[in-house]
Specification:
Length: 169
């Protein structure tokens, strides 16, 4: 691989959305994460991507919920402090594997490539909008509760929204 790209954290974000009590959606993000990519050229085809997030940096704008998500009921941040993803771009899909709570499973992400530009400082930059979904129970996040009417409190399906901006090294 001839080109190395490091993440510009100030222009990147990692979000997830999950249904709460079937009727609404809760959005959360990870504030502490890193990523890099290696590619043969600026098309990124066949390029390799690596990503890691610190579980303790989860933020849903509700400190009590965040602490519950960090607990053994969900992410178990004490035993599994990071989640990671590695993948390879093929067409408009990054085919990869997510490791979460010590479990590694295939997760493919739709990749919308924003292209490559030269910034005012002479740096080559590239951008990606990535989307996908996973079943949280596949990774051992199996806490469940039911409402009085029998509906689930937290859905199994988690939607992922990741915006990454890279700077060529």
């Amino acid at each position: 691989m001839s080109l190395t790209w490091n993440l510009d954290n100030s222009h990147s974000e990692v979000q997830f959305k999950i249904k709460h009590m079937v009727i609404s959606t809760v959005t959360g993000d990870f504030l502490d994460f890193s990523a890099n990519a290696k590619s043969e050229d600026e098309t990124f085809q066949g390029g390799e991507f690596q990503f890691e997030a610190k579980i303790d940096s989860i933020n849903t704008k509700n400190p009590q919920r965040d602490e519950h998500l960090k607990s053994a009921d969900f992410f178990n941040a004490e035993e599994f402090p990071t989640m990671s993803y590695t993948g390879k771009l093929e067409g408009d899909t990054i085919k990869g594997e997510l490791t979460l709570r010590g479990v590694t499973k295939p997760v493919n992400l739709h990749a919308e490539f924003g292209g490559v530009i030269k910034d005012p400082y002479g740096n080559q930059r590239s951008g990606f909008e990535l989307t996908g979904e996973l079943n949280r129970k596949d990774f051992g996040l199996s806490w469940d509760a039911l409402t009085e009417s029998g509906g689930v409190v937290v859905s199994d399906k988690v939607k992922l929204f990741v915006n990454l901006e890279f700077i060529q090294q």
